[in-house]
Amino acid sequence: MKKFFISVSLFCMLSAMAQKFETQKLTDAQGYTYETVKNDQAGVRVYTLKNGLKVYLAKNEDAPRIQTYIPVRTGSNNDPSDNTGLAHYLEHMVFKGTSNLGTQDWVKEKALLQQISDLYEQHKAEKDPAKKKELYKKIDEVSQEASKYAIANEYDKAISSLGATGTNAHTWLDETVYKNNIPSNELEKWLRVEKERFSELVLRLFHTELEAVYEEYNRAQDNDGRLVNYALMEALFPKHPNGQQTTIGTSEHLKSPSMVAIHKYFDTYYVPNNMAVVLVGDIDFDKTIKLVDQYFGAFKYKDLPMKKMVTEEPMTKVVSRTVKSPSTQRMTMAWRTDSYGSQEARLADVVAEILSNNGDAGLIDLNINQKQKTLGAGAYESPFKMYGLFALSVTPKEGQSFDEAKKLLLDQLDLVKKGQFPDWIFKAIVNDKKVQRMKGWETADGLATELYGSYIKGRTWEQELDEINEYEKITKADVIKFANEFFKDNYVVVYKEKGVNDKLVRVENPGITPIKLNREVQSPFLKGILNTKVAEIKPEFIDYKAAIQTSQVKDKTVSFVKNKYNEIAQVSYVFPFGTDNDKELSIAGTVFGYLGTDKYTPEQLKEEFYKLGISNSIRTSNDQMIVTLTGLESNMKKGVELMNHWMTNVKADKAIYSQTVKTILEARAVGKKDKGRIMAALSNYAKYGKDSRMTDIVSKDRLEGIDVTELMKKIKTLNQYPYQIFLYGQDQTGLEKAVKPYVVNTSLQPAKAKEYTEPATTGKVYFTNYDMVQMEMAKVAKGSTVNLSNFGKSNVFNEYFGRGLSSIVFQEIRESKSLAYSAYVSYGNASEKGHANYITNYIGTQSNKLPLAVSAMNDLMAELPQIPAQFDNARGSALKQIASNRVNRTNIFFSQLALKKLGIDYDIRKDTYAEIQGLTLPQLTGFYNTEVKPVQYNTAIIGKKENLNMESINKMGEFQEVSLEEIFGY
Question: pLDDT tens-digit profile of 561-614?
Fold first, then answer.
């Protein structure tokens, strides 16, 4: 085994990261006490307000924006056993406003909401199905009356008016987290809105949102990952709520909710001493904490209930479960571990890394995946606040039994138990964790996510920082001892077989009457937000010539962008040709990854890159091939040398090629069983017809007839074709020296690119049968040729009409009519000059709602709705997003590369911003009438054929059921 190499600069960097972390308590000039951790390069400050609220602040000056998270230390594990799904449903309702936000007459609305709450209590207690249905009709009637006083989506309108992006929330076992990314000048207004939001719970527009949550439940039923996870968790945790109640809840509980129970939950857990505010971005510490205290400090401390500790008995046998769905078979095995931050969790994580890691240099990576013994296998450790799990997963090959696949995985575990893994891997694992930490925390979102995670798990920031040091203490002897004591016949195994899922819950459409949205009304609170002026952020448009330094090596252009943040570097070789020029290029790239050289076996190459802390990739698209190296700049010279050796000296191997062909063909078969891939292929078919890039594949006969030696010539001779080099790092001279020895003048030219037509969309309806609860429909229309002068209009159109929580489509289809969980209309500009734009209209809903959803969407799109206040909000939001965003890091180079395809080499956002500044609603309407209204759509629908409403389908256009062979091209 070659000696592990650490460069001097890497050693210094990693040593700095390994310094002792120590919490220090300091006081700022205003008298606020906070904690900071010595040697924390992120400079995090942790405050605790008098009411117990934790506030995490850190600076990131990438852009004048702030990533915000408000985590609450509660999730589905605190759901009442007779109201599962409550925490998740509450998360949805926190977006509905308060007695000040989202209402035009709170006194009248409040009385009606109380009636609705009382009716739901009766509905929950009632056992007679007929009487329950009558009660639901009454709920629907009173909800109609209550909606006259509600103003839908006022929270979303308030937040979008700030220029916020990423507005969302999620619920899991022990957490509910609310998220926004805002311009930094809008911080106080954001705090005003969030203070109001969390000050009280108003369950308005309740039954329509409940139906939306039920649609989310249906999506979960159609999701293989969740299907397996539910079975796994239920068997692994037979007592603990980790496994005994899912976050989405049961169908029975979702259909019989209690508004009283939801209010009780909110009042119990949504208290300041159980919440935090996380702000990472362009902030001033002293001003920010004062503002947070001003708005959130008024919340009252409240004792939390004593939580009943549920402990599991040790597992002493293998517990198996079987689930079925139409997709390909797979298997997951899992052992229950101790909680996050425990030594057992760390040891389990190290074993997972020894088996399967970022460098593809683990035992499973090398002995199973590299040798293509299955279609894919891996290991991971997932720690929770209470307990956790270590998992092995595998997708068997065609004809391979679960037992055979399981033996392959357990054989790798046996190697760990015997200590048959390299000594250097420990240092490589720790170094990789440090590199991943650097890469993750360089972004505001990455650091903010880590901060809210530490809060949820009840960990101090010092403990989180010190976790790396705890990993460094782990020895090979520790791992061997742990593996032998921990991994026994004490696991859960879930077999996901291909078949019919007979546990799907299919329900009737409850017949909700559309509620009033009152779109044009604004509450005094919202008016106050909209009328509060702040100092504007001036947009900054990038000067590519100043930001990118160029030089020549032979006849190749070398572009350099300086990394101002850390020691991660990137070297990319960008070839201006792809599969349109040679459709076997992607096959060559795939096969290359399985081959070695005269000096290294394929497995040794993986190990060498992992030792260096360098990852490599070859990505091939229709018009580009990019070879990329990413990792520690101090080792990049060695990484470039190794990559060039590999590409120049790759050793063709007929046996490996033959096996790779089998893997490719089996992977294609797997794709034809996967709902997501089928829908993607069907949508592509609706867009481009039978002759497209997606269907123009390398045939089975051709794959089996290719000479692998000839195929590898495509890789060996790449250096002789035209390309450019992109360097990202701190030392331009050093990186140029690293690449220079391997550059030669161009002597070969690629074949002419094949041209693919963009046929007109003419009202065809294409359907593919798939056993699922929901139906998914994507209508796609070919628009006009890309026009740079319309980028601003399309931006505002999507914001105003088509996408996002405050868009008209979302409000009408989901909020008012509760016809779909997901619905949008999107105007997509072509990425290349001379090509067509496309308009996409998507609905994912229960099959018996699809006709109504389609009808509602058609009505909505007949004319562009005229809502001046909402237009102003959308226009202002679009301007604020552009003004506060910055192009940085590697995106500087790659954004210019993309713009050149449009025939320009300057920052198009400057033109877009100016266009939006002068845009009026009549002008947007003109754009709609010219570019959207006249188009004809082709439609792609996937679902269970017996659930199709053919009367409704035939109104959409000429119906054609297409086979998997037709849409995939094989």
Answer: 999 999 999 999 999 999 999 999 999 999 999 999 999 999 999 999 999 999
Gap between the Cα atoms of 84 and 174, Å rounded = 14
Residue 579's contacts (CB-CB under 8 Å, 6 or more residues apart) are: 585, 586, 620, 621, 622, 693
| Band (5; pLDDT cuts 50, 70, 90) | very low
Q: Which residues pair with 764 in a beta bridge?
A: 958
Q: Which residues of 937-961 are buried (b: 16+ CB within 10 A; e: fewer)?
A: bbbbbbbbeeebeeeebeebbeeee
Q: Binning pLDDT at 50, 70 and 90, where does residue 507 land?
A: low
What is the three-class DSSP state of 554?
coil
Beta bridge partners of 942: 768, 776
d(Cα 149, Cα 147) in Å, to the nearest integer? Answer: 5
For residue 514, how many other CB atoms are within 10 A of its CB?
A: 16
Residues contacting 314, CB < 8 A, separation 6+ = 490
Taking the C-alpha atoms of residue 865 and residue 802, their distance in angstroms, rounded to an integer, is: 11
Two structure tokens written together for 809: 């489509």
Pairing of strands 330-337, 492-498: antiparallel
DSSP 524: H
Measured from the Cβ of residue 463, the count of other Cβ atoms closer than 10 Å reads 16
Q: How many CB atoms lie within 10 A of CB 58?
A: 24
Strand partners, 280: 58, 67
DSSP string, 246-313: -SS--HHHHHS--HHHHHHHHHHH-SGGGBEEEEEES--HHHHHHHHHHHHTTSPP-PPPPPPP--PP
Tokens of 449: 């996510």
Task: Identify the pLDDT of residue 266.
Answer: 98
**Rg of the chain (C-alpha set):** 29
pLDDT tens digits for range 672-721: 999 999 999 999 999 999 999 999 999 999 999 999 999 999 999 999 99
The answer for residues whose C-beta is within 8 angstroms of residue 325's C-beta and 6 or more apart is 224, 227, 496, 498, 499, 501, 771
E strand or H helix at 870, and its extent?
Answer: helix 868-884
Provide the percentage of residues in the chain whose pLDDT is more than 90. Answer: 92
Measured CA to CA in angstroms, residue 722 lies from 52, 743, 903 at distances of 62, 11, 20
Q: What is the pLDDT of residue 213?
A: 86
Helix axes 425-441, 602-612, angle to 10 degrees: 60
- β-pair type (938-943, 836-846): unpaired
- Nearest C-alpha neighbor of 669 from the set 420, 398, 465: 398
Residue 505 has a pLDDT of 82
Angle in degrees, 0-180, between the axes of helices 425-441 and 343-355, rounded to the nearest 10: 100
Closest listed residue to residue 856, CA positions, set 825, 828, 900, 831: 825
Element at 349 (helix H, strand E): helix 343-355
Dihedral, 868, 869, 872, 874 alpha carbons, nearest 10 = -110
d(CA 785, CA 156): 33
- Looking at residue 686, its pLDDT comes to 98
Q: Report d(CA 260, CA 118) in Å as an integer.
A: 9
User: 54-59 and 65-72: which strand pairing?
Assistant: unpaired
Whole-angstrom CA distances from 936 to 458, 790, 939 are 55, 20, 10
Phi, psi of 544 (to 5 degrees): -60, -35
CA atoms of 969 and 48, how far apart (whole Å): 60
State whether residue 557 is helix, strand or coil.
strand
How many angstroms separate the CA atoms of 359 and 41, rounded?
26
pLDDT of residue 509: 65
Indicate the pairing of strand 556-562 with strand 388-395: unpaired
